[in-house]
Amino acid sequence: MGVRGLLGYCLDHKSCECVKYVNIVEVAKEKGAIEILVDFYAFMHYVLQRFWRTLTTVNNNPLLRLMGGEYAAFDAYLTKLVTDLRSCGIHLVMYIDGAIGSSKATMDRKLQTWKDRYSQNLQKMRDNLDVIAGYKQISDLSEDSAVRPVLLEVQMMETLKACECEVVQCTSGEADYVLARNLMIRPQAFAIFSNDSDFCIFRDCRFIPCQLFDINNDLKLGGMQQLPEKPQQLTVGILHSSAVASLLQLQDESALVELSIIAGNDFTGPFSRQLKMSLGLQERAHVTEVADWIQHHKCVENHPAAADMMQRNRKLADSIRQSREFYSAGSATMEETSGDTTSPLTQAIESAIEKGDLPTSMMGIHRGFYWQRIMLEDCHYGCPNVETALTPLRALIFRIIVPWRSNVVEEYGRSQAQEPRWNRVCAVPDRFIITFDRIQREKIFPNLRTFACIMSYHEPDFPHKFMDLYGRRNGFIYLLLRFFLCMNSGVNLFIGLEEFLALVAMVVGRVDESWYQALALTPSVRSITLASWFQAVYRHAYAYLGKLLYISHEFPAPKHVFSGAVWTAFHVASSQQGQQYLHVHFPRELCHIRGDMDRILNDKKHIIPKLVEGIFNYYR
């Protein structure tokens, strides 16, 4: 979160000596190679915005970002960017925050902030659905209002892995301190890429804000080019903490820490209003006003009112002490731990996260906390939501990583009444499901059987063993399709046969996605909901259960499974009303779409009866 208003003030004065402009291609040539330490989520947001800008411009289709995700195109875009930078000697090192709930200290400080962000993201979801429903225009939405595709992080991690990009996952807490610390100790570390003003405060910190990366657009991101361009030069603006102190007319960098304490950082934020009032400052005092105060008083304790507050309020005094330790980044003492690490289960999970075998969210679940994902789905009152529908599956997955002694996970997310709330989920007491520390990577066949057993929990006697019949890759897809059909046949989304066949065609077929991306079809709330639900099932199966069982590498990545543009077209063409619409507005395209669907379904006609067995009668 950082210090409110500080980064904005620095960017407003970027023409001053506060910002140093550097051609990092030239620096990399001089040094042999450099590392940019990257805030993963800031980078993901930065790249995604420019990817959507490019894809919608090239295809003249502004609705693409509402369709659910174009993972193959995103994979190609990100791969080109990362490999081009590496060929210039610029190596990106990604740092990922620990999951919500993985650190009690961070949880206590930031829970309300996370709740507020969740509510803001719910409003973004409603705004996007209003566009899909025709109540608003796509032009009414800002770029920041886009809802992240459900499988974005999964695909991004797979792409970075394929590019051999180093990824550092924090097992608990946020990555800010680890980033600042690694800038000091990694020999080739040059600067930090982020949008967090905390990096203006850390001593001797070199910080590239997202707004000052590639200021001359040498990479050609967000333009008419389908893919980024390899840069001959790459100019970035660097904020150095000493320059920030000079801009604010502070004596040295240590005064920036005092500024953050008064202005409100992650530690002192809850006390900021009370502290400012005691110091004679307005509640929303500008950073320059706080800097003026520091010029006269040097540090917080020098004001008698603040000193008195610190004596009476131990939590305030602790937050001030923690702020100074945090921003010093001089030792490893501030690196947060997830709590008790003595149990074999905790140690196994921590080790797997550090190695990149598990996503960071697993530690949050292990500590008894799960933050539900916001995705585009029908959110009218009473409509089911997918995270709630998948609770029984999660309860089985929880058994693998939740200690037997605790057994309960607190979930926070949207209810059917739309408003977020807490919900308690108990891990299923199944003695046949072993905990993560006992799962062995090399025991692939038992792990595959466990996967199939859990993904078939709702019909344990189903006769067809898809992985045995069709191999691991195809079997995974068929297992997901069957699971999706069972959870939505006669309940939840009440899916029909033609809709399901459209989904089968999209998932198992291979078509020219670029052709579909140029189709300016408006998705329906129904098609978006079905897309989000299927992707949520995939996410649970691939990124949760598959990772825990060390078998996700056997399964296809999102780029091979889902395309929002293809799904939108197939879903429209699956109904009689949709075909009539296409016949009037896209007559030539209708023939192409139906041709692709019929070809794929005919090719898979031997498997479809098994997928729908006991639910639909299929004759074709």
UniProtKB/TrEMBL annotation:
Gene3D superfamilies: 5'-nuclease (3.40.50.1010). It comes from the Eukaryota. InterPro entries: Asteroid, PIN-like_dom_sf. Belongs to the asteroid family. This is Asteroid domain-containing protein. It comes from Ridgeia piscesae. The lineage of its organism: Eukaryota, Metazoa, Spiralia, Lophotrochozoa, Annelida.
